[in-house]
Amino acid sequence: MADGSTFVQAFTILFREGLEALLVVAALAAFLRRAGAAERIRPVYAGAGLAVLASFGMAWVFEAFFDGNHNDLIEAGVILVAAGLMFTMSGWLFLRQDPAAWKAEINRMAERAMGAGTLLSLAGIAFLAVFREGAETVLFLHALARTAGGFDVSLLSGLAVAVAALAVVFVAMQWLALRLPLRPVFLLTSAFLFVMGLRMVGAAIQEFQEQVLVPVHNDGVPDLVTELGFNGSWEALSVQGAIVLCALVWLVMRRARPAAGVAARPQVSA
Rounded to two decimals, what is the model's pTM? Predict the structure, then answer.
C-alpha cells in the first residue's frame, strides 16, 4: 500500500507541477509550427531545457541555505517577469492574427517577422514557465524520496507515468494546432498566454500575501475562482480586473484607428 501511495504522490507532484509549464511550451511550439516557422522552435526548447538545469541549481541553493524552503519574494519576481512576457507575446500574436498579412510578412521580411527579439521573448517565456515550477518540483520529489526510502521502483514508476501523460498532452496540442486554420491558432494562443499571465499575476500577489506585504480579503469571492486556479482574493482580482480593462481599452483603440483613418480620407468626386 505504501508503494501505491508513493506512486500516486510522485505522479501527482510531477504532473501537477509540470502541466502548467508544459502547456505554455506546447502552445508556443504549436504556434510556431502552424505559423510555418517550425525551424525556430529550438529557442523555446532551449529555454525550457536551461530552466530544468537552473531548477536543479536553485533547488540545491534552497536545500543548502534555506533548509529546503523557497523564497517567496524571489518566486514573486520570477512570476511577474513571466507574466509581463506573456502579456507582451499575447498582444504580439493578436496583432498578427490575419492569415494573409502574416504570410505576406513572412514572405517579405522573414527575419524581421520573427526576429531575434521575438525569439528571445519566446525562449524567455519557456524558461520562466518551467523555472517557476522546476525548483519546487525537485524539492518536493526530494522530500518524498527521503520519506519513502529513496528513489525506488514505485517512485520512479510514478515519475515515468507522469512524463508519459505530459507527453500525450504535448503531442495532442501539436496535432490539434496543425489541423486548425491559422487565425484560430493565433487567437487561441494569444488568449491562452493572456489568461496564463493573469494567473501568474495572481500567484505573485499570493506570494506577497504570504509574506504579509499585501492584505487578504476573500469574503464573497465565488469558490469557482479558486477552483479555476486563480487567486481568490479581492486584491488579486482587482489587479487582474485592471489588466483586463487596459487590454479592452487597447483593443477598442486598435479597432477605432483604421475606422478613423478611413473617415479622414478625402473623398474623390466622380
Answer: 0.70
